[in-house]
Amino acid sequence: MDKWKLTVARANFPMVLDAANHRLFIGCRHPSKLLVLNLDTGQLIADLDTDSDVDDIFYDPKSSNIYLSCGGGYVDFFVQQDTNSYKFIEQIRTCVGRE
What is the CB-side half-sphere exposure of residue 20 using CA atoms within 13 A? Predict the structure, then answer.
C-alpha cells in the first residue's frame, strides 16, 4: 500500500470524493495543501497551496468547483478544469478560527 502514502504533506484531515472521475481530494495542514489523488493508481495528480488549517472540503460535480473552508480565515476556491488539471480561482475572506 505504499502507493497511498502521502509524502508531499501531512496532517491530512478533510477528504471528498469525485467518484465519477476516480479522484480523491485531500486537505493537509503541514504544509497547507490540497492534494488530488487518482484512485485507480494512487498517483498524486495535483499539489496546490491553500490557506492554513483546512477544516473541510466541498466538491460540486456539476460545476467542478472545489471549496476549502480554512481556519486561517478564508474559503479557498479551485476549479477542476479536467480530471488532471486544477486551477486556483480566489480566496474568500471569512474569519480566523472561531471568532
Answer: 8
Instruction: Determine the length of the chain.
Output: 99
Matching CATH number, 9-93, of 2.60.40.10, 3.90.1750.20, 3.90.1150.10, 2.40.10.480: 2.40.10.480
What grid cell was written down for 50?
491553500
Q: What is the pTM of this model?
A: 0.89
Per-residue pLDDT of the chain (99 residues; tens, 9 = 90+): 455 667 777 778 899 999 999 999 999 999 999 999 999 998 999 999 999 999 999 999 999 999 999 999 999 999 999 999 999 999 999 987 665
